[in-house]
Every structure is written in structure tokens, then in C-alpha cells.
Design goal:
SH3 type barrels; Rossmann fold; globular; 3 domains; Elongation Factor Tu (Ef-tu), domain 3
Length: 379
């Protein structure tokens, strides 16, 4: 329970369905003092208070988990990615490492059967093999291939699908989930719209029924991620050159770590036309600016691949749709597997393919897997 509307309604729905519900709030420590005046980020001290109020309102058990030490890993990851010229996605890493990692370990200690969150996503089994038993055994996934045994010892495949509300779908940030984890996760809001969730919150008079959504990365100050980097890795930030696409020096910067691919604002260089960060070169401490066309690419390599549909492991080359950012529209691409990495070639050039961001693979509304963008190959 984050103290927001979504997780609060999720807890209510589970209780209504007959589950014995225990609310857990992850105290991350690092963000509490920094975020005292901010209400658009998660995990603040105010959120902990709100989560407890909701638990009291629903008459469910509630505990605060101290994840301060574990959370340090995420901040280190965040800074390290920028230091390597990449743009991190801490929310996905948080899901992978904390929400469905450390939190699941804690659930095991409690003897809990499931973990539930307020994510807008769905978990199903293929309709072709679904029966009254959601764990009905089968031999092949929708794309073919053997699948692992699930928690119950049956051979079955869980599908991660987009949330019904396309404007709130969060499947992109869940691509790291495994079959073992999906067998023990419930997303109560997957079949609901945000409007419906708000109506439920008002109907049962939740203390947070009018609370605005959290939108910011919890440990990043309101002034921007650049200030966090200046605080955490000041000695790594050094002045360097800014060049245009032809290699001409057109300015100076205070650290390549303060830029991201596709960035247009805050460049502090007037060229008389729109300019975008097209390349970041840590080795030479150089930032390259170009036209919008210079930020359009088709081909990249991704690694740390997680296939939710394990039948994919039998295929070498295939066509899918891919999202390279949370708000990116799915685009058709061809994937070629090489070990635990893939080469991706889009049918049409895409804007700002960014190393460090996630590439998530879809077949319609089904998430087949994903990985981390490491290198752009064309241009």
C-alpha cells in the first residue's frame, strides 16, 4: 500500500472477495526528508500516514517495512547509469528488486499466498487452455515451446497483459516478472478504469479518495535529477565539449551525465533552430547535438532479456511490436536472438531510442518480455 488511491482500492476489492489482507508500506528512507514538501511522489512520510489511515478504514492489518538499506541500491544504479551515458528507469528496477523481489521474500516469511498491487495490468492464462482451473496444464505457449512448472507443480503459462484502461496501462514497467512471480501476483485493478477506481474510492469514503496521483521518481528532488547527480557524484561531473553533427565545437557543458538522448530543453546553446541531443560519448566527455532526423534510428541491441512467454526461447528471429518508453506507441520490429541479448530492427525509424531505457515486447496486448537498450547500431 503506497498511500494512494489505486493500492487502497485494490486492498478493498481483495477484502470484498474474501481474502485475508495485510497492508504493507515500503519505507525507503532516502526520500522522506527530501520529499517533505512534495505530494506528487510516492513513499513520503505523508504517504505512510495515508496508508495507515486507509488500513484502519478498511479494518485490515498494516505494517511498515524498512527498506532503507535496500533502496540505496536503486539510487546507486540511477547515478551509475547516467555516469555511463545512459538514461535509467528506476521504477522498473524498483519493481524488479523491491516490490516483486524483497517484498515477495517478506510475503514468504508471513506465509502469504499472494502479493497484490495497484498496477493497471492483467494476468491470465491463454483462453485456448483455460478451464474452470486457472492452472490447467498444457504443453505449449501461444508462440510455441515448453513452459516451466508453476507453483502448484502444474505445467502452465501465465500471460501478462495490458490493463483494460489504455490511458493507465502499466504493463511496460512489469516486463521483468517471471512465471514463478506471476503465479503469486494479483492485480485487482486490471479490469477497471481509473474513473471506476475513483468512484469506488468515493463510494466507500476512503480517506485518500481525492488524493492526486504520484508522478515523480521518489528520490529525485523537485528541482530535477541533475541536482541529485551533483549531490551524489560531484567529482564525476566535469566540463566538456558540445559538438554539432559535423563535429564542430559549438559550446561547453558541465557534465555529459546531465543530458539524455532526445533532450531539447535546457541545452543553453542557441543555434537558431531546434536542436536535440543525438549522442552522448562518456569516453571523450562529449555531447552531440543535431536535428530531429539525427535522433531517428531503427536498430539497437538490448540485453538482460526476460521472456515471460518462455516459448520464445525456441525462436531465433520473429516479428513483434515494441515500446521503448512508457508513453511510446508500440511499433513493429524484427527481433533476432543471440544468447541473452537481441538485435532489434524497427520497420520505421523511431525517435530517441535511448540506452538505459527498457524495450518491452508485445503481441497485441500481451507482454512477451523485454530487456534493456544498450547500444544503437545504425548511424
Amino acid at each position: 500500500m503506497s498511500g494512494g488511491v489505486d493500492s487502497s482500492v485494490a486492498a478493498y476489492l481483495l477484502k470484498e472477495q474474501g481474502y485475508e489482507v495485510t497492508g504493507l508500506f515500503m519505507s525507503l528512507g532516502a526520500c522522506l526528508e527530501r520529499l517533505a514538501p512534495r505530494r506528487k511522489a510516492c513513499c513520503s512520510v505523508f504517504d505512510a500516514q495515508d496508508a495507515r489511515k486507509v488500513a484502519d478504514h478498511l479494518d485490515i492489518k498494516f505494517s511498515i517495512l524498512d527498506f532503507k538499506k535496500d533502496f540505496g541500491y536503486l539510487i546507486d544504479y540511477f547515478c551509475s547509469e547516467y555516469d555511463q551515458g545512459r538514461t535509467p528507469n528506476p521504477c522498473i528496477r524498483c519493481n524488479q528488486y523491491l516490490k516483486f523481489g524483497k517484498l515477495m521474500e517478506y510475503a514468504d516469511k508471513l506465509g502469504a499466498d499472494y502479493i497484490a498491487t495497484g498496477h493497471y495490468a492483467r494476468i491470465t492464462t491463454p483462453k485456448s487452455i483455460r478451464s474452470n482451473n486457472p492452472l490447467a496444464p498444457f504443453n505449449k505457449g501461444e508462440l510455441g515451446g515448453k513452459v516451466p512448472l508453476n507453483k502448484g507443480g502444474l505445467r502452465g503459462l501465465y500471460l501478462l497483459k495490458k490493463g483494460l484502461d489504455s490511458t493507465k496501462d502499466q504493463s511496460y514497467v512489469l516486463f521483468t516478472l517471471t512465471q514463478k512471480q506471476l503465479a503469486r501476483i494479483i492485480f485487482p485493478l486490471g479490469e477497471l478504469t481509473k474513473t471506476e477506481v475513483r468512484k469506488i474510492a468515493h463510494k466507500i469514503d476512503l480517506p485518500v479518495k481525492n488524493k492526486p496521483e504520484s508522478q515523480d521518481v521518489c528520490f529525485v528532488p523537485s528541482s530535477g535529477y541533475q541536482d541529485l547527480l551533483k549531490e551524489r557524484i560531484p567529482k564525476r561531473l566535469k566540463q566538456g565539449t558540445v559538438k554539432d553533427a559535423s563535429g564542430k565545437i559549438i559550446g561547453r557543458h558541465d557534465g555529459y551525465q546531465l543530458f539524455t538522448i532526445g533532450q531539447r530543453r535546457g541545452l543553453k546553446i542557441a543555434l537558431g533552430k531546434p536542436a536535440y541531443v543525438s549522442k552522448i560519448i562518456p569516453k571523450t566527455n562529449t555531447v552531440i547535438l543535431g536535428d530531429r532526423e539525427d535522433v531517428l534510428h531503427t536498430t539497437f541491441v538490448a540485453d538482460e532479456i526476460n521472456w515471460i512467454d518462455t516459448g520464445i526461447n525456441l525462436l531465433k528471429t520473429f516479428d513483434l511490436e515494441i515500446k521503448i518508453r512508457y508513453l511510446h506507441k508500440q511499433a513493429k520490429a524484427r527481433i533476432t536472438r543471440t544468447g541473452n541479448s537481441v538485435r532489434v530492427v524497427f520497420k520505421q525509424p523511431q525517435f530517441a531510442i535511448t540506452p538505459g531505457q527498457a524495450a518491452v515486447f508485445y503481441k497485441g496486448d500481451i507482454v512477451l518480455g523485454g530487456g534493456w537498450i544498450r547500444k544503437i547500431l545504425d548511424k
